[in-house]
Amino acid sequence: MSGTWAIIVAAGRGSRIGADLPKQYLKLGDSSILALTLDNFLQHSNIDGVLVVTHPDDEELFKRECSEFADKVHITFGGATRQESVLNGLQALESMRPDVVLVHDAARPFTNHDVITKLIHAGNSGKAAIAAFPVVDSLKQVSNNIILKNVDRNGLWHAQTPQAFPFDVIRDAHFAIEDLSNYTDDAAVAEASGHQISIVTSGKENFKITTPEDLVQATMTINNRQTKEYKMAKEHQMESRTGFGYDVHCFEEGDHVTLCGVDIPHIKKLKGHSDADVGLHALTDAILGALCEGDIGTHFPPSDPQWKGALSDQFLVFARDRVLARQGKIIHVDVTLVCEKPKIGPNRELMVTKMAEILDINPNRVSIKATTSEKLGFTGREEGIAAQAVATIQLPSAD
């Protein structure tokens, strides 16, 4: 046995809604009701598989209205009643042997993922549980449009789906009952077999689309959702920026160089107002360039004594934080060091780790390369080191 499967019951005709198609194939926005329901369950991280119980006459309808899910779900045919359809679904899952099964109405496309998660947890704990919400309106018993008496609503709940069960529990309960036509939901079948059912509080948003009024409400719900999603997409629309940086420092007497945040033993050191980390300076300029916020000298002028001997990771942290302050993200950085000596290869991994740590990004987003100038120019004469850097960032669109 393994995992959690959902049975989506979609074999009904939905005659009360008064449409030419079974209601589960009616459109809400650009998608059918059934497609929205399937997408909701397939998007849940704890659902391992989905079985759709369809009507034998609806094969072409399913292929047309749920084509994007044809390779993602399993299909079986339903029976004359809802409970017979569920039984067919349970039999179809025998070979899958799931730990937990959730039975759900195709015409409830707005089930909250938190409710699904709680139901799965109940099933994995060996319990049966259903989505439901408490009755809040006053209840009246009526005959011929005349109120006979008030009904106490305390302890009364609206039963919904999904309804979750350990697979063996609900399968055996269906097999044990000869006539399933007297039962309106799976919880009633399980209760009749002696099982206790618990409640997971859901809400009115998990309504079943049954009448034309329900269809209007569902259309309003999907329109509101799409409007919110569009606004959020606009608010969070990102654009990519690329910046380039270049820096040079000459050698002077010393015993080590600092490159990309790492001290490397050498017979000389790099000359500069700060620690002269040519790699971090070039990268700082690349990020500031992508931000269109000047360069390292703009923010840390050499004429300012407070930066005398400063560690260059301070400059890179500043550039990083400027990206974050603008709700941006550093996607990738690439530094090329140009020198004859010292050798960069033995220190490359440590440099990558150090720069990733400073930038607070994954090391697989950091590239450090080295090359020589084939003995040409000031780097070829070992008079200094040059560095080039490219930074790719994302920022909220300025449009």
Automatic annotation (TrEMBL):
<keyword id="KW-0511">Multifunctional enzyme</keyword>
<feature type="site" description="Transition state stabilizer">
    <location>
        <position position="16"/>
    </location>
</feature>
<dbReference type="InterPro" id="IPR036571">
    <property type="entry name" value="MECDP_synthase_sf"/>
</dbReference>
<feature type="site" description="Positions MEP for the nucleophilic attack">
    <location>
        <position position="153"/>
    </location>
</feature>
<dbReference type="InterPro" id="IPR020555">
    <property type="entry name" value="MECDP_synthase_CS"/>
</dbReference>
<dbReference type="InterPro" id="IPR018294">
    <property type="entry name" value="ISPD_synthase_CS"/>
</dbReference>
<dbReference type="InterPro" id="IPR003526">
    <property type="entry name" value="MECDP_synthase"/>
</dbReference>
<dbReference type="InterPro" id="IPR001228">
    <property type="entry name" value="IspD"/>
</dbReference>
<feature type="domain" description="2-C-methyl-D-erythritol 2,4-cyclodiphosphate synthase">
    <location>
        <begin position="241"/>
        <end position="393"/>
    </location>
</feature>
<feature type="binding site">
    <location>
        <position position="247"/>
    </location>
    <ligand>
        <name>a divalent metal cation</name>
    </ligand>
</feature>
<comment type="pathway">
    <text>Isoprenoid biosynthesis; isopentenyl diphosphate biosynthesis via DXP pathway; isopentenyl diphosphate from 1-deoxy-D-xylulose 5-phosphate: step 4/6.</text>
</comment>
<dbReference type="Pfam" id="PF02542">
    <property type="entry name" value="YgbB"/>
</dbReference>
<feature type="binding site">
    <location>
        <begin position="295"/>
        <end position="297"/>
    </location>
    <ligand>
        <name>4-CDP-2-C-methyl-D-erythritol 2-phosphate</name>
    </ligand>
</feature>
<dbReference type="InterPro" id="IPR026596">
    <property type="entry name" value="IspD/F"/>
</dbReference>
<feature type="binding site">
    <location>
        <position position="281"/>
    </location>
    <ligand>
        <name>a divalent metal cation</name>
    </ligand>
</feature>
<comment type="function">
    <text>Bifunctional enzyme that catalyzes the formation of 4-diphosphocytidyl-2-C-methyl-D-erythritol from CTP and 2-C-methyl-D-erythritol 4-phosphate (MEP) (IspD), and catalyzes the conversion of 4-diphosphocytidyl-2-C-methyl-D-erythritol 2-phosphate (CDP-ME2P) to 2-C-methyl-D-erythritol 2,4-cyclodiphosphate (ME-CPP) with a corresponding release of cytidine 5-monophosphate (CMP) (IspF).</text>
</comment>
<comment type="similarity">
    <text>Belongs to the IspD/TarI cytidylyltransferase family. IspD subfamily.</text>
</comment>
<keyword id="KW-0456">Lyase</keyword>
<comment type="pathway">
    <text>Isoprenoid biosynthesis; isopentenyl diphosphate biosynthesis via DXP pathway; isopentenyl diphosphate from 1-deoxy-D-xylulose 5-phosphate: step 2/6.</text>
</comment>
<feature type="site" description="Transition state stabilizer">
    <location>
        <position position="23"/>
    </location>
</feature>
<feature type="site" description="Positions MEP for the nucleophilic attack">
    <location>
        <position position="208"/>
    </location>
</feature>
<feature type="binding site">
    <location>
        <position position="381"/>
    </location>
    <ligand>
        <name>4-CDP-2-C-methyl-D-erythritol 2-phosphate</name>
    </ligand>
</feature>
<feature type="binding site">
    <location>
        <begin position="247"/>
        <end position="249"/>
    </location>
    <ligand>
        <name>4-CDP-2-C-methyl-D-erythritol 2-phosphate</name>
    </ligand>
</feature>
<protein>
    <recommendedName>
        <fullName>Bifunctional enzyme IspD/IspF</fullName>
        <ecNumber>2.7.7.60</ecNumber>
        <ecNumber>4.6.1.12</ecNumber>
    </recommendedName>
</protein>
<feature type="binding site">
    <location>
        <position position="249"/>
    </location>
    <ligand>
        <name>a divalent metal cation</name>
    </ligand>
</feature>
<dbReference type="GO" id="GO:0050518">
    <property type="term" value="F:2-C-methyl-D-erythritol 4-phosphate cytidylyltransferase activity"/>
</dbReference>
<feature type="region of interest" description="2-C-methyl-D-erythritol 4-phosphate cytidylyltransferase">
    <location>
        <begin position="1"/>
        <end position="240"/>
    </location>
</feature>
<dbReference type="Pfam" id="PF01128">
    <property type="entry name" value="IspD"/>
</dbReference>
<keyword id="KW-0479">Metal-binding</keyword>
<keyword id="KW-0808">Transferase</keyword>
<feature type="binding site">
    <location>
        <begin position="371"/>
        <end position="374"/>
    </location>
    <ligand>
        <name>4-CDP-2-C-methyl-D-erythritol 2-phosphate</name>
    </ligand>
</feature>
<keyword id="KW-0414">Isoprene biosynthesis</keyword>
<keyword id="KW-0548">Nucleotidyltransferase</keyword>
<dbReference type="GO" id="GO:0016114">
    <property type="term" value="P:terpenoid biosynthetic process"/>
</dbReference>
<dbReference type="GO" id="GO:0046872">
    <property type="term" value="F:metal ion binding"/>
</dbReference>
<feature type="site" description="Transition state stabilizer">
    <location>
        <position position="372"/>
    </location>
</feature>
<dbReference type="GO" id="GO:0008685">
    <property type="term" value="F:2-C-methyl-D-erythritol 2,4-cyclodiphosphate synthase activity"/>
</dbReference>
<dbReference type="GO" id="GO:0019288">
    <property type="term" value="P:isopentenyl diphosphate biosynthetic process, methylerythritol 4-phosphate pathway"/>
</dbReference>
<feature type="binding site">
    <location>
        <begin position="273"/>
        <end position="274"/>
    </location>
    <ligand>
        <name>4-CDP-2-C-methyl-D-erythritol 2-phosphate</name>
    </ligand>
</feature>
<feature type="binding site">
    <location>
        <position position="378"/>
    </location>
    <ligand>
        <name>4-CDP-2-C-methyl-D-erythritol 2-phosphate</name>
    </ligand>
</feature>
<feature type="site" description="Transition state stabilizer">
    <location>
        <position position="273"/>
    </location>
</feature>
<feature type="region of interest" description="2-C-methyl-D-erythritol 2,4-cyclodiphosphate synthase">
    <location>
        <begin position="241"/>
        <end position="399"/>
    </location>
</feature>
